[in-house]
User: Fold these one by one.
Assistant:
Number 1:
Amino acid sequence: MNNIPEWNRASEPSAQPVNSKSRDKSAGKSAKRNSPITIGGVTIEPGQRCYVDLPLPPLYTHTSVAMPVHVINGKQPGPVMFVTAAIHGDEINGIEIIRRLLATKALNRLCGTLIAVPVVNVYGFVSQSRYLPDRRDLNRSFPGSEKGSMAARLADTLMSEVVEKCTHGIDLHTAAEGRANLPQIRVDLDAHPELLSLAEAFAPPILLDSATRDGTLRGAAGDLPLLLYEAGEALRFDDLAIRAGLKGILRVMRHLNMLPAGKSGERRSKPWLANNSVWMRAPQSGILRSRIPLGGIVDEGVVLGYISDPFGEAEQAVISDVSGVLIGITKLPLVHEGEALYHVATTSSIKSAAKAVDEFHLEYEQPVIKRLK
Ligand SMILES: [Zn+2]
């Protein structure tokens, strides 16, 4: 545990840890003082913030490994929210989002509890890899188990020590290595229609209504309201994605009354809800020249890019089968036939999609991307 200015240090590991499942999540509404919370055997009283290390399987070098968790327990009661990043170890934008979040002064007036886990997949982060040393994808290993694979054990630690103690969650991701994503929130509105208001409070340019995959944290969270934020690319800091992510989390916290209301008149883009998305794939192997940037609005039949051989011969166009917004793009121009190149969120209303993307870029003072024909 480290001392944090302005807050008290939490007690040493409690002899009688609070049972997480007995923590009354609705108690905050009537009680005036927040409840203590116990994570990793450390009890954090109301008004305290501290780091807790959750032990993980050590390296074979005998080096111990722990998942670092930062807990801020507000004096006043309210929701208990986790923010996780780097479940895929090379997706580092979220780590910077959490660093900026923890430095936010408004957290001194937090109602409820914030549990920030900037590096969930510690092994992947150290080796700059999406995966765990056992080559498993942690985000296909939830909810995990105490006696399962290494990935399952790590998933179980996060579930039992963090997720099960929370009322809300935000999980931060980027595109996989070699690709970039336009900032977007993914929600399964069929299963969780109540997430729409939370996602709109975050206010990304795009809300993608997508089914939950088995083994993901989003799937394991069950009824717990969880937003999945996707923005930027792996192993890179993307300033727009980071600023939009931080602002979105703070807006959600204000929406849940965890933080005092923001300034009135704040510019907020209205997200555009996409019900479907399609990947455009490489029609042949070769070297790709993209024509349309991330966030670009595309019409059906438009040329997204050209693939040719190194001599500029045997050129073939990559054509969009649908109209929509380019929400994901490959950054590596060396492609094989069949490779996913452009991720297009589809729309029947190009106008409203274009407006949402334009408003978002104006909010963050980025140049507006022109619609290309
Ligand atoms: Zn990810």
Number 2:
Amino acid sequence: MEKLTKIEELPFQLESYLMLGDAVIITDYKHIIVNVNKEFEKVTGYSGDSIIGEHARFMKSKMTPKSTYTSLKKMLSEGKPWSGVFVNRKKSGEIWHSSITISPIQVGMDVYFVGVFRELEQLKQGIYLSENKRIETQRELLKVLAISCEIRDPGIEEHLFRVQELTEMLITEHVQRHHLKIPKNTVHHIIHSSILHDIGKSGIPEGILYKPGPLTTYERKIIEMHPLMGVDIVNKFSKELHSELIFNQDIVRNIILYHHEKWDGTGYPNQLSGEDIPLEARIVAVVDVYDALTSRRPYKDSWTTEDALSFIYEQKGKHFDPFIVETFLDHFERKAIIS
Ligand SMILES: [Fe+2]
């Protein structure tokens, strides 16, 4: 292998890192390999002599998501250590999933990057899931949970999927429109968790939940307990599961607990108002009501899109966040112009 640059000597201050039991790679600030340890040679099959002076990217498999390198670059440029998962290739061509921590270390005027690998097969957590597979599994699990909690309601599946689709549209357009600095991951969590907004309904007696006529005050109070019951369900199963793999607990709790709060403070269960209601709950509130209005239920006909949108407009600043209503209505206006 032809060397890209003049080979640098490893500063003595960094020698002790090579004594670690895990595979270690040390590069200069341009990611040119300065040294590796025996464990690295053993795991990857590359001898140190053959790769010192190479750019560390030569091990890339093209299977590591771009976002991994973006977050790595960002952290290192800020002088902070970064941890993540690389999918590299060993000398044999075999794919190598490894968890790595890269720490910037200053020696005199120079910065070096010390990378400590752990093979994922050796991690106690068990099987490694790629980011895409993890997101897919997460989505499926949440779907199964949401449907099982509301299985008594025929047609609930369609309502839940529509709520999820509309939440995706609304949060995406709202973030773009107001240049909100919300990480992509958080947006994904909001979209996936929206399907769980009514899981607490599984704790409401059928006779009340599907009562065709008007509800008594007592029955209404029982129905209004569903956000609290939903949070209780989430608390129970998050104790049993390695839950951060499945959802962001704060987001899912906020959606379940606050999707019936109103902008003017007249909602339930906590009478929160304005921006005290978390954004994710304000978003789901609009799409949940819109979809309920436009769906046919045993006790009511479906409203037309125009009537439902007029109702949403009329509730702007009362039931709903006025800015979110604007994004929502603009979406339908654009759609109407296009069609
Ligand atoms: Fe609800």
Number 3:
Amino acid sequence: MSEYVLEMYGIQKSFPGVQALNNVDFRLRPGTVHALVGENGAGKSTLMKCLFGLYSIDSGQVYLQGREVSFNHPRQALEHGVAMVHQELNQVPKRNVMENLWLGRLPKKTGFVNEKKMYENTKKAFSELGIDINPRAIMENLSVSVRQIAICAGQRSMMRCSTVGRRC
Ligand SMILES: Nc1ncnc2c1ncn2[C@@H]1O[C@H](COP(=O)(O)OP(=O)(O)O)[C@@H](O)[C@H]1O
Ligand SMILES: [Mg+2]
């Protein structure tokens, strides 16, 4: 098995009149964190969007746990445990943290949203990472960085549910 959880080789991506990515390699070991740094327009977002299936790559290979993958849609990326938290916030500011986290996959009980389960799931997602954010806090009252942390924790929890087969 590959020592890398993710490998990207020779990634090329052009838009009309601009080559955004020219032969980019990126490798990621399990349990590591990388910061992709570069000036505006360097191609950071494009590389992540190629990985997430939002953009199709012109050429190059992507391997997840040693297996070649080619995502044509973010849904496929999510199914393989790849999530993306977008730089541009696309949340519902008047709703609370947990509703934003579970948007589109709200735990339901006899047709109604299971508020208790949603609270418990959110608390668990946060406590696993030692994060102290009130799941009932209204999104717009939090700083952008705290909102991003909450969304990241929610994505991580969702990934673990889908990839580790945990009961959620
Ligand atoms: N959807 C798009 N259509 C056309 N050009 C794009 C598109 N997305 C990004 N680009 C161009 O690709 C280059 C890389 O952009 P981007 O990946 O957003 O850079 P970064 O995230 O590092 O600031 C820039 O020249 C940008 O104008
Ligand atoms: Mg960007």
